[in-house]
Design a protein that fits this description.
mainly alpha; Lysozyme; 0% strand
Length: 280
């Protein structure tokens, strides 16, 4: 067969070959389309995965930053609390120095301040109330002893001290301790033990009478004698009560003068406060 000039190559193929090639053309086109589709889908998936990874990375970064902010805020709050606690301790120590005589050593003053702060926080009392009671009872002399045998800063009778110590040993949670290992001292002749037991005793009276005035009367007379006199119409130690109130107000005024910020007078919490002691 002669070759015609300009004839297409496919035209030179035998007819049956041309027909076979035309039949396979759609299949080739489909395969080519599938290749392009697979490439497109694969590329899309790659970018989607990459985008998801970047989103997850930024999400983790955001969470980390939020945690850092929370940690910083917690540290700031803890620092504020420490500053407030230090300020209250300083106020208590200043009040002790105002009330105590010169023969009380700085070491004893610090012990008293530490225990008054701890016990006032534990039971919800104003620390100046505890100091006012100590001032009325013993003039803040750790070794004070009355003719009747009452001892220490809070002038506990030996029988009262032994009874309170026995109660605490039987139930450490009475003073907020989880077990006996947390009880540091129950000796009413020690500064720490005397304040701890004396505050427990006064708190019991507050819970029992739900009145500051009555609790102070009962602290001075003893609850049995107070109940008897209350029933009979007196006499009651009103001068003793007024002395404590005057001392408390004096300490409050000194604190207000130093801080230039009036503080409401609250002797103790008698409602839903953190008092732990329970009356018999």
């Amino acid at each position: 067969m002669n070759r015609t000039e300009g004839q297409e190559p496919s035209a030179r193929l035998p007819k049956k070959h041309r027909d076979a090639w035309l039949v396979r053309l759609p299949a080739h086109l489909v395969m080519l389309g599938m290749v392009f589709l697979a490439a497109y889908v694969g590329g899309s998936m790659y970018w989607l995965v990459k985008k998801d990874n970047e989103v997850e990375k930024f999400r983790r970064l955001e969470i980390e930053l939020q945690n850092q902010i929370k940690e910083r805020d917690l540290q700031i709050q803890q620092s504020k609390q420490k500053i407030e606690q230090l300020g209250r301790r300083v106020e208590i120590l200043d009040a002790i120095q105002e009330l105590s005589s010169a023969d009380i050593t700085p070491s004893d003053q610090r012990k008293i301040a530490s225990m008054v702060y701890e016990q006032s926080e534990k039971y919800g009392h104003d620390p100046f109330l505890l100091l006012a009671i100590m001032s009325a009872e013993s003039s803040l002399k750790p070794g004070a002893q009355s003719e009747a045998g009452a001892h220490g800063l809070m002038q506990l009778m030996p029988s009262t001290g032994r009874s309170l110590a026995k109660m605490v040993k039987a139930d450490p949670k009475l003073i907020g301790a989880e077990d006996h290992d947390e009880i540091t001292s129950l000796n009413m002749r020690d500064i720490e033990g005397n304040i701890q037991l004396g505050t427990l005793y006064f708190t019991q009276l507050m819970v029992r009478y739900k009145s500051l005035e009555e609790a102070i009367y009962a602290y001075n007379l003893g609850p049995n004698l107070y109940d008897k006199r209350k029933k009979e119409g007196g006499p009651l130690p009103r001068q003793y009560y007024r002395k404590i109130v005057r001392t408390f107000n004096r300490l409050q005024q000194l604190r207000d003068d130093k801080s230039n910020a009036p503080i409401p007078i609250v002797f103790a919490q008698t409602g839903d406060g953190p008092m732990l002691a329970q009356a018999e």
